[in-house]
Design a protein that fits this description.
This protein is 0% helix and 57% strand. The chain has no helices and 11 strands. It has strands spanning 2-7, 10-13, 18-26, 33-39, 46-52, 57-59, 67-72, 77-82, 91-98, 103-105, 109-114. Strands 2, 4, 5, 6, 9, 10 and 11 form a 7-stranded mixed sheet that branches. A 4-stranded antiparallel sheet has the order 1-3-8-7, with no helix packed on it. Strand 4 (33-39) and strand 5 (46-52) form a beta hairpin. The relative contact order is 0.33.
């Protein structure tokens, strides 16, 4: 089993910044991909950004140039630095861990961007 604990969500004005963190524990496999997804009200969950254990990253077009994903493999922690936030970024953000053995999700953290 893999457990994920997220932190860092909150309320911010448009143009502001937030940093999300997600710490993984349990049966961590050295080769894995961690990432962030989000679900806005009335919409389906969508990918925000992912990063492999080899630091290869991928981003949704809507966040490129504004969000940065990074990780600390020693701490099994992934971060999402969100800058220039827009009201349309308002959503519940979920951390994800994928390896050949597990696919785990965090409980979600709310990000609200006011205009």
């Amino acid at each position: 089993q893999v457990q994920l604990v997220e932190s860092g969500g909150g309320l911010v004005q448009a143009g502001g910044s937030l940093r999300l963190s997600c710490a993984a524990s349990g049966s961590i496999y050295s080769s894995n991909t961690m990432g962030w997804y989000r679900r806005a009200p009335g919409k389906q969950r969508e990918l925000v950004a992912t990063i492999t254990s080899g630091a290869i990253t991928a981003y949704a077009d809507s966040v490129k140039g504004r969000f940065t994903i990074s990780r600390d493999n020693a701490k099994n922690t992934v971060y999402l630095q969100m800058n220039s936030l827009k009201p349309e970024d308002t959503a519940v953000y979920y951390c994800n861990y994928k390896s050949r053995f597990y696919n785990a999700w965090g409980q979600g953290t709310q990000v609200t961007v006011s205009s």
